[in-house]
Design a protein that fits this description.
This protein is mainly α. The chain has six helices and four strands; from the N terminus they run αβαβαβααβα. The chain has a single domain, classed as Rossmann fold. Helix 1 packs across helix 6 and helix 4 packs across helix 5.
């Protein structure tokens, strides 16, 4: 949904390190991420932690425990069709560095379709919890706006 692209842009533009949580084992994600962030804060480290493991619930938990250190937003594309998102990924592939998914017949369409549905759920949860959600129709074009928010 653009999380890794934004994290890489923050690293490139501001020298801020980043870490992706996408590959954390599902049953351990919340506990591992919470401990990792707590340790980084205790050690005086600054960085971006991005990925699908950062849920609105976990974000609020982190914000409660480390209010002066945690800021963030959520990205999604609930208003795009699967076809429109696939076109945007292809259009921005060179600039964003997104390599795509293994394209067994129809695999990309299945994956993106699931992400569109997840974006709808994420949007509803962000709205319910009063968290910022950016609707992304073109991550490359919207990068400056998202980074400006994160820097504020």
């Amino acid at each position: 949904m653009g999380k890794s692209y934004i994290a890489k842009e923050l690293q490139r533009r501001l020298g801020i390190s980043y870490f992706s949580t996408d590959w954390f084992p599902l049953p351990l994600r919340k506990e591992l991420i919470f401990k990792m962030i707590g340790n980084q804060i205790d050690d005086g480290m600054c960085g971006v932690i991005e990925g699908t493991a950062i849920t609105p619930h976990l974000f609020l938990l982190l914000k409660r425990h480390f209010p002066e250190y945690i800021c963030g937003c959520f990205l999604g594309y609930k208003d795009l069709t699967t076809e429109a998102k696939l076109e945007e990924l292809e259009e921005n592939r060179a600039q964003s560095g997104h390599k795509g998914w293994p394209d067994y017949p129809g695999m990309s369409k299945i994956i993106v379709s699931g992400f569109v549905e997840e974006s709808k759920r994420l949007y509803d949860e962000c709205k319910e919890k009063n968290l910022l959600y950016f609707e992304v129709d073109n991550i490359v074009r919207q990068t400056d706006r998202i980074i400006s928010f994160l820097r504020a």
